[in-house]
Write a structure and sequence with these properties.
Pfam families: Mrr_cat. This is Restriction endonuclease type IV Mrr domain-containing protein. InterPro entries: Restrct_endonuc-II-like, Restrct_endonuc_IV_Mrr, tRNA_endonuc-like_dom_sf, Type_IV_Methyl-Rstrct_Enzyme. Keywords: Membrane, Transmembrane, Transmembrane helix. The chain has 216 residues and is an alpha/beta fold. Helix content is 45%, strand content 12%. The relative contact order is 0.09.
Length: 216
């Protein structure tokens, strides 16, 4: 009798596990962006959060820019893209490179995103660089972007772009995308100034090198 009860408990656990798995899979429905049978205005930020990987987000940005009326829009090849996922020409006729980062909400985008998108500008003959993320940016990322005049579009900005586009306000969506990035240098002439700014030094490294050199 005890053995029969044990089997019933095991069977109940298996059935319960299957039901939980089914419910979890229904909640974790991924959005497919490589098909043509969907309306971009039906896509919300929550849909983007449920995507399986970053390629869907890149495709979304690619289609969004086209539907916003930009010219010269194209998506780069997945491998050897040199740091740009999408390229487009803005209202002023200036080519922009975009790196799209689909991160979890609480996972901030780091400094490498700015390094990569900025370094690929010359390859694509672009004059502006943008990083679009589904989360926020780290402080170091914000600093490097400000110094190099790279525009950062975080989750709040992206949400506002999506809301404007879905409501038919193309002007507002484009305004957010083309708004000037935060600039830390008052002018680019500062970067050519002969006055050297204080740099945080690695004093342990200095001490080590002096010690080694004194032994010679």
């Amino acid at each position: 009798m005890d053995y029969f009860i044990f089997l019933m408990i095991i069977a109940a656990i298996v059935v319960l596990s299957i039901l939980i798995l089914i419910i979890w899979r229904r909640q974790k429905v991924t959005v497919v962006f490589d098909k043509e049978d969907y309306d971009l205005k039906d896509i919300t930020l929550a849909d983007i959060d449920r995507m399986e990987d970053g390629s869907g987000f890149e495709m979304y940005i690619y289609r969004l820019l086209i539907e916003l009326g930009y010219s010269g829009v194209y998506k780069t090849v997945g491998s050897r893209d040199f740091g740009a996922d999408v390229v487009f020409t803005d209202a002023d006729g200036i080519r922009n490179v975009i790196q799209a980062k689909r991160y979890a909400i609480h996972n901030p985008v780091g400094i490498s995103a700015v390094q990569e998108v900025f370094s690929c500008m010359r390859y694509y003959k672009a004059k502006k660089a943008i990083v679009i993320a589904t989360s926020r940016f780290t402080d170091s990322c914000e600093t490097l972007a400000g110094i190099n005049y790279v525009k950062l579009i975080d989750r709040t900005d992206l949400s506002n772009i999506i809301d404007a586009f879905r409501s038919g306000d193309t002007f507002e969506a484009r305004r957010i995308i083309e708004a000037e990035p935060r600039k830390l240098l008052e002018s680019w002439s500062e970067s050519n100034s002969t006055t050297l700014h204080e740099i945080r030094k690695d004093y342990k490294a200095e001490k080590y090198v002096k010690k080694v050199m004194n032994k010679r």
